[in-house]
Amino acid sequence: MPRHLHLITAEDPLTLQARARELIRFPQLTMPLLAGLTPSDWTVTHTDEITRAVDTRLDCDLVGITAATPGAPHAYELASAFRARGIPVVMGGPHATLLPDEVARHCDAVVVGEAEPVWHQVLSEVVEVVPRGRIYRYPTPASLDRLAFARRDLIHHGGFNKWWTTRGAMIATRGCPHKCSYCTIPVLYPEAHRMRLRPVEQVVAEIQSFRDKGVVFWDDNLGAVPRYAKALFRALTPLRRWWTSQTTMASLADDEFLELAAASGCKAFFVGLESVNQDSLNDSRKAHNRVADYRALLKRCHAHGIAIQAGIIFGFEEDDRDVFARTVDCFGDLGLDNATISLLVPYPGTPAYARLEAEGRIIDRNWRHYNGKTHVVFQPARMSPDQLLAGYEWAKTQFYSLGHIARRLARSRTGLWWNIPRNLGYHFGLSGEVKARAALHEQSR
User: Fold this and answer.
1) I need a surface site. Which of 233, 249, 306, 444 has the fewest CB within 10 A?
2) In this predicted model, what pLDDT tens digit does every residue of 13-69 receive, in sequence order?
């Protein structure tokens, strides 16, 4: 009789509430990938809390949970509910890798780092032995040539956003050569600077195995190895799919890279621009970003029909109270297509956390608040926590005001078929509470 494995991608309710009205949600890939590695004598089900709630009354033989830091307390609650019924729980993901000893107190086994190399061992041992707090560690795999195809039948649409949820999420590379002080990638995967490249023919084969027209590459830096990226783009071109991924400014300075990306169906890149303050970038080990080159970057990408979704972070050491208005004005003038605007989060284990901890400036240790949206968890250098939160929310409301959307997209004129609804989704998704705090910032300017 097949055993039942239930996989959970945990999301904290506070974070879900902050993202409730977003129109486009890309599914997390961790659990569908592990399901693809699970032997056929297991029945596998999956709940991604971005689309539906977990039923803790479910009958199963084993529960696997992945969670980022803000979702960890909620994941502990889920684990407790299953374990109270005698069902063993194994936990992994970013927070389990950052703080495995803490996570081990709430489950039967912990997987540190990438789970693929130890997954068969976990399945065979946890149910039979129930090791109670065992921590599984395995060196980062040197290659991605045995990466399983994700179980796309376990990626579910949810609610009103179903037309904007793609099952085409996948991985072509892992790693990033940079070591930004606030980034968890170098901490989660100590060898992340060594790029691992999946054979192009395997990437193409997986894309050909599903019908979705859209592909989301969940890569930390798809363009980090230009030779590989260009080979991948050439192979993607005949497939006639559209796709998006993440890369850095360095890749986008290469015209051949952009030409091949556009010809292969690239519609947008996420790029962590982060700040319009060069001193902030330099201080956070991101000097490879040059603010003076932002205009040329956007002009070059737009000329190839590629939109830019920028990462913007407020709360760097050099940020003062003027940074919010300067950011909104700068990106409005440049015609930035979209932005994921966040508060700086000093995740445990990062250089940013170590610095703030050593200076006694960590003021909140409730992991639920480490979501970059609802709370400032440290004492900023040049303003109060309340001023940082209000300024961030003011910048977000200004950036996604109807006038600013019109201004930016009139300059961009790129990907309007998805850029307009994406921007409007952010505009209408702003809560009354956010707008109220933004108004307080406006009054204090």
Assistant:
1) 444
2) 887 776 655 555 566 789 999 999 999 999 999 999 988 899 999 999 999 999 999
Among positive and negative, which fits the CA dihedral 181, 187, 191, 197?
A: negative
* Side chain identity, residue 15: T
- Is 165 within 8 Å of 157 (Cβ atoms)? yes
- The pair of structure tokens assigned to 424 is 């409007």
- Residue 172 corresponds to which tokens in the numbers above? 């072509």
CA proximity to 195, closest of 247, 236, 235: 247
d(CA 211, CA 88): 36
Q: How far apart are the first and last CA of the chain?
A: 67
Distance separating alpha carbons of residues 434 and 396, to the nearest angstrom:
9
DSSP β-bridge partners for residue 247: 271
Q: What distance lies between CA 225 and its chain's CA centroid?
A: 21
Query: Which pLDDT score is estimated for 21?
Result: 54
Cβ density class 76-108: b for 16+ within 10 Å, e for less: bebbebbeeeebbbbbbbbbbbbbbeebbebbb
CA 399 – CA 68 distance, rounded (Å): 27
The amino acid at residue 90 is: V
Residue given tokens 């193409």 in the structure block: 204
In this predicted model, which residue has the larger pLDDT, 433 or 34? 34
∠ Cα 328 329 334 (to 5°): 100
The answer to whether the CB of 18 falls within 8 A of the CB of 369 is: no
CB within 8 Å of 162: residues ≥ 6 apart: none
Please give the Cα distance from 274 to 286 (Å, whole number): 9
Q: CA-CA distance, 222 to 26, in Å (whole number)?
A: 17
Q: Which two tokens stand for residue 199?
A: 């054979």
Q: Beta strands 109-112 and 89-92: pairing type? A: parallel
